[in-house]
Every structure is written in C-alpha cells, then in structure tokens.
Amino acid sequence: LTSIDTPLPKPKHHTYLPAYSFSISTMVIMKAYTVIFFHALVTSGVNGFIHDILTVRQATSALASRSTASSETGPLFGIVWKNPFENAFGGERLLLDQDAEARKELKSEILRRCALPGSKNKRAQVEKTINELAQFSPVKESATSPLLQKEWKVIWTTEKEINLFLEKGWATEILQTLDGSVLQNMIPFVKGGSLGVKGKIEADENNPIRTLFKFESAALDLAKWGNYNLPPVGQGWFDTVYLDDNLRVDLNSRNDILICTPYDSI
C-alpha cells in the first residue's frame, strides 16, 4: 500500500482477458480484486485503493499474456471483458493529471535554468532537470515523430562552436531545421550573411529516440565580401530524450546538450 504522498504508477492501456472460458487464472484475478478492494479501503483510503487496483491490473495483463489466446470460441460469452475497476474513482485521470502537472513544472524549470547566466555547475543543474523531464516525454519514439520535423531555435547548448558566435556577438540566434531526411543548421550573422551546414538524417532502427546524421555541405555567406563553400565536417547521432509541441531536448554523440523551441513560436 502507498501513502498519499507516494507517486502512483503510470497507467497502461486497457487489459483484455484472452478469449477462453473461466480458468484458474481468471478466478485468482477476481479474488485478488475482491481482497484488495476491502483491504485498501480499510487501511489506505481512496488513494491506496487506486494504487492497488492499478497494481492488480498489471498482474492481470501479465497473467493474460501467458495464457492461450488462440481459442476459436471467441470472447467470453461473446463479450469483450474489461477490468471492472478500469476507472475506479477516476484513478487513470488522476495519474494523467499528475503527469501533466509534473511535466509542466519541469518544462518551466528547464527553461528558467537555460535563461540564467552561465556558471560552473549550470550544466549539472540542467542535466538533473533533463533526467527528470525525460520520464514524462509524451513522445516515446521521437526519432520518427512528425513533431521533430520543423524549424527549431536553439535556446541553450553546450556546443562550444555554436556558443562562440553568440559570445562574440556575431549572431543572436541559432536555427536548426529538420525536413524529411534533410538536416540544416543556420547561424545568421548580425551584420548580414550566415554560416550554414546541410546534411542527411535517418532514424536509428535499433533506438527509437536516436537520429543519425552526416553533414554533406557547408556554406559561408559574408554578404558583400562574397560566398564560400566549405568542406562539410561532422557526423554522429543525437537522442531526442524529450519532445512535444513546443520543446525538444537532445543529447548527442559528442556529449553535448541541445535545448530547442519551435522557431515560429518565438
């Protein structure tokens, strides 16, 4: 049982029992529900009750997955059977609300830390918040998500080459665009011109949050002083550990951090 201050487990999808008549597993599950119902209400109140019911739901799923699902008799008595305490006292809604609130607070915290002046322990503080925020990412397969495909503004990074342009006052913003299989980084100069690199990207088949990249061209635009093609440098990967409509957090193969917001939202 849990106290009211203990975070509840994250909800999972509906659990369906396999299509077969009552078995020993089914009877065990129903008895467990009955015992936990009374035990939780007596000893822990509503919050503990919700926690224990959701715990039994996980056990239900595990038992069902080990049972034979190939019966030709169809669903039990022709009905798709659901867990009877699917939404007990709004349990799932409570969990979702808690996740949303935690996500909102952590997003605000990471943006606040990014805006603070640099310090020796700033990276450690940002990394701590990233580790907490990553658990609440609404997108689990970020490398193939349509949300990744847009123009982004880098609001904070540990990449020294990028920070040099900002620190020297040569640029005030860093842009990155992901469009299909194309990646483009652009640094517009304050006095005109820009530095841009372009390359190819693809999702890593073995890691749902990892994107592989390889730069293929680079161009330096010095406005009235001319345009110059430069040899492209760099290939590697980046893991998008957090992604939603208005925030993206990457960790890359150079052990650098990129935190971005959509450019059109600025």
**First CA to last CA: what distance?**
46 Å
> What is the C-alpha radius of gyration, as a whole number of Å?
25 Å
What is the overall number of helices? 5
Total E-strand runs: 9
User: How do the strands line up in the largest sheet?
Assistant: 1-2-3-4-5-7-8-9
The succession of helices and strands, N to C, reads: HHHHEHEEEEEEEE
Uncertain regions spanning at least 5 consecutive residues: 1-6, 8-33, 35-44, 52-92
**Overall mean confidence score, pLDDT:** 76
Choose one word for the global shape: globular
Portion of residues in beta strands equals 15-25%
State the helical fraction. Answer: 25-40%
Structural class: alpha+beta
Major beta sheet summary: 8 strands, antiparallel, barrel
What does this structure look like?
The chain is α+β, with helices and mostly antiparallel strands. It has helices at 24-43, 45-66, 91-115, 122-134, 160-167; strands spanning 151-157, 175-179, 182-188, 194-203, 210-221, 227-230, 235-243, 248-252, 257-262. The protein has an eight-stranded antiparallel beta barrel. Strand 3 (182-188) and strand 4 (194-203) form a beta hairpin. Helix 1 (24-43) runs antiparallel to helix 2. The longest helix is centred in the middle third of the chain and has 25 residues, at 91-115. The model is unreliable at 1-6, 8-33, 35-44 and 52-92 (pLDDT under 50).
